[in-house]
Specification:
By secondary structure, the protein is α+β, with helices and mostly antiparallel strands. The chain has 11 helices and 20 strands. Its EC number is 3.4.21.-. This is Trypsin-like serine peptidase.
Length: 394
């Protein structure tokens, strides 16, 4: 029988997330202990009021790498040749391609699950806490614009095709009330040690607002699928550890598998936070895992038995997972969510009736049943601060 304490804590977390969501509809106005990481900083594009032409700095950057900007927009981005796949922190480019992410294209995107085998986990034995019991993921209440507005779905292109992850609108300390920042996983924006930056990255908050079935969503108006619209990333940061050591099963970069995106405001210049109506604060000094009574993960699981159309959540008492004696331990909770939930935020109560983000979904075992996410300490704060300052008010 499940213990009472996590269930009571779960109720509090669910209520808190609902309180952070906007009460407006989509058309209304209204300390971690990891070492400092080397932030991977992308080159920014201007975030003008709806100017979707290819910015000159991005065009120049493509030319530097021998890529014709017009060819890029007309399909050259599909060339994943090792010599042209931009990988270094300074080389990120993500020019807006109008009409690329049509609803039908979003619906065919796949999940980039990072799964661990028993051998992957063996080196951490003796430090990890016992494997948690599975916690069945529960669908979030609808409409998401009221019950989970900060949570959304990430779409991007990889050599394997169109992919999906999850993300969270987070507060920006240098732009209070006007944040354009989204928290996600490093493996949702960069392939790690064997590849480079993914392309055509967009964020859709409160995707599929009323959890419609695929056939019903296809027949519904666009505002059902993207109630707040789609936001293109114009700047991305992730950890240097992820770029150097991230791999298909997480690799040595898994404890540093986090990323911060700055998205381009839509026409009119309203920020993402103003449009959605809320954002979640990030806590880089959360207590040790063993002192947290409950932690909740939100996201859009797309691997079987889920289909990626419905926002889900899991709440459990967290434990520690160690992948190596030389890297920080990760948070781990019981949860049945699958790939596609990667990058989704992990929350704890902030003590005032709201929530704060303390991790994101990174890896899971092949057999399912639990999720693990990085502890956010000085390295994660450095990544966050880099992008926040870049777009801070003067």
């Amino acid at each position: 029988m499940p213990s009472i304490r996590p269930l009571l804590a779960a109720t509090g977390l669910v209520a808190a997330l609902a309180l952070t969501a906007t009460a407006c509809g989509p058309t209304e106005n209204k300390a971690g202990g990891d070492k400092p990481s080397s932030p991977a900083v992308s080159a920014p594009a201007p975030a003008g009021d709806g100017d979707h032409a290819l910015p000159k700095d991005l065009a120049d950057k493509l030319r530097e790498h021998g890529v014709d900007p017009e060819k890029w927009k007309n399909g050259e981005w599909r060339n994943w040749n090792k010599d042209t796949w931009l990988r270094e922190a300074k080389d990120f480019v993500n020019p807006v391609i109008e009409g690329l992410w049509k609803p039908e294209r979003m619906r065919t995107a796949k999940d980039p699950a990072k799964t661990m085998t028993a051998s992957d986990l063996s080196s951490g034995q003796g430090v990890s806490d016992p494997t948690p019991r599975p916690v069945r993921a529960q669908p979030e209440k609808t409409p998401y614009t009221r019950h989970g507005a900060p949570v959304g779905k990430l779409f991007f292109d990889s050599p394997q095709g169109s992919m999906v992850c999850s993300g969270t609108v987070v507060k920006d300390v240098n732009n209070p009330g006007r944040s354009n920042l989204v928290w996600t996983a490093g493996h949702c924006v960069h392939a790690g040690g064997t590849g480079g930056w993914y392309r055509n990255i967009v964020f859709v908050p409160a995707y599929n607002n009323n959890a419609l079935a695929p056939d019903a969503l296809q027949a519904a108006p666009p505002r059902e699928e993207a109630p707040y619209g789609a936001y293109w990333a114009d700047w991305v940061t992730t950890s240097g550890e992820w770029i150097r050591g991230g791999g298909p099963t997480g690799g040595s970069g898994a404890p540093y598998d986090y990323a911060v995106m700055h998205v381009k405001p839509q026409r009119g210049g309203r920020s993402l936070e103003e449009t959605v109506g809320t954002a979640v604060a990030v806590d880089f000094r959360a207590p040790d895992t063993r002192r947290i009574s409950a932690m909740g993960a939100w996201g859009y699981p797309a691997g079987a038995p889920y289909n990626g159309y419905v926002m889900h959540k899991c709440v459990d008492r967290p434990g520690r997972l160690s992948l190596s004696p030389t890297t920080p331990t990760m948070h781990r909770i019981g949860c049945t969510m699958t790939g596609g939930s990667s990058g989704g935020g992990w929350f704890v109560n902030d003590g005032t009736g709201g929530l704060k983000l303390v991790s994101n979904t990174s890896i899971k075992p092949v057999t399912g049943g639990w999720l693990a996410g990085p502890r956010l300490g000085r390295g994660a704060e450095q990544v966050y601060t880099t992008v926040s300052r870049r777009f801070g008010r003067s």
